[in-house]
Write a structure and sequence with these properties.
5% strand, mainly alpha, single chain, 2 strands
Length: 78
């Protein structure tokens, strides 16, 4: 039986915070994916501090390329 590898979307460049969250939680609604991502950020040791160092500010709508790289480095590929 031949298995097809499902390619994940590229996570390079700036991304909307909800769009990024949906990469990690594709079976959730956008709102639920967003909330779950924030639980991960809040509970993942050191991640919030890394994002702040990368220029993150509360309520921003887009992650910068540097912040996306920080998230993927910390959480792994979606």
């Amino acid at each position: 039986m031949k298995h097809e590898k499902k390619e994940s979307p590229s996570v390079r460049g700036a991304m909307g915070v909800t769009e990024f969250a949906q990469l990690y939680f594709p079976d959730c609604t956008p709102e639920v994916a967003y909330k779950r991502m924030w639980v991960w950020i809040a509970t993942s040791r050191g991640l919030k501090e890394k994002l702040i160092a990368a220029g993150w500010v509360k309520f921003q709508k887009l992650y910068t390329p540097k912040q996306v790289a920080c998230l993927v480095d910390h959480l792994g590929e979606p």
